[in-house]
Amino acid sequence: MTPYRSTGFILHCRGMRSIGTSELAKRAGVNVETVRFYERTGLLPEPPRTPSGYRRFSPDAIRVVRFVKRAQELGFSLTEIKDLLSLRARPGATCEDVRRRAEAKIHDVDAKIRSLQAVRRALKRLAAECSGRGPVEACPILERLDPKGFGNES
After folding, report:
1. Residue 10: beta bridge partners?
2. 148 CB-near residues (< 8 Å, 6+ apart)
3. Does residue 56 contact residue 50 with C-beta atoms inside 8 Å?
4. What tens digit of pLDDT does each residue of 59-107 get?
């Protein structure tokens, strides 16, 4: 088997024990379909195959999958993660390039927080208008969500 390049990680199979898809998934803490999805989307390179067609990954692929999962936990999209991984392989890329992407993600998170806080305030106002007593037809929350009511589409 020959070395192959992932976005940002050089994965070698020659001279080291390669692993199958299920072992990679188990050791990286994901399911097999996640590994296949990462391969389809280019987060993992297409690995060499055995003569019988089984995929054989370098153990370094475990690092890539774990990196992807950690970056997802921080809110990075798969496209953004692919970009982060590619920075490792890009000549001339710097920590500043990575930092700019992290700061952009912070900006996105701050915007989501502001949006969620506005949703929370609106829900609190709705809940405050409702005593919780009376028939559902007279519920002020439902009335505010649909002033015409269901079934009155005219």
Report:
1. 5
2. none
3. yes
4. 999 999 999 999 999 999 999 999 999 998 899 999 999 999 999 999 9
Task: Please state, in angstroms and rounded to a whole number, the distance separating the CA atoms of residues 127 and 130.
Answer: 5
Q: What is the pLDDT of residues 2-39, one digit of tens each?
A: 344 445 444 444 556 899 999 999 999 999 999 999 99
In angstroms, the Cα distances linking 102 to 21, 41, 91, 107, 118 are 31, 22, 20, 9, 24
Q: Are 89 and 8 in contact (CB under 8 A)?
A: yes
List Cα–Cα distances, 46 to 30, 37, 39, in angstroms: 18, 11, 6
pTM of the complete model: 0.73
CB 49 within 8 A of CB 4: no
